[in-house]
Amino acid sequence: MTDIKRPEQGKRLFAVQPASWAKLDGYGCEYATNMAAAYEIAGRWVQEYNEDCIIWKIGTVQAMRWVRVSVGEVVTSAV
Which of 4, 35, 67, 76 is deepest in the core (most CB within 10 A)? Predict the structure, then answer.
């Protein structure tokens, strides 16, 4: 995606947005620097809006859907 700034070499970033959005929206999503933070953001969105979220992996050649966080799923972090 051209509207997503690529992270520094070797640094993974994640973007979180509602699953109903067909494509990654670089302006409407929330960003996280690690998976635990991405799950936390997705968990809040799911609880607040009662809608599944997609965590996207960005910073590679092309952004990709990484994981879906569903309504009713318990999201916890080991960190």
Answer: 4
Q: CB of 29 within 8 A of CB of 16?
A: yes
pLDDT digits (tens, 9 = 90+) for 33-73: 888 889 999 999 998 999 999 999 987 778 889 999 988 76
Whole-number Å distance between alpha carbons of 78 and 60: 25
Query: Cα dihedral sign for 42, 43, 47, 48?
Result: negative
pTM of structure:
0.77
6 found inside a domain: no
Helix or strand or coil: residue 65?
strand
Q: Does 1 map to a domain?
A: no
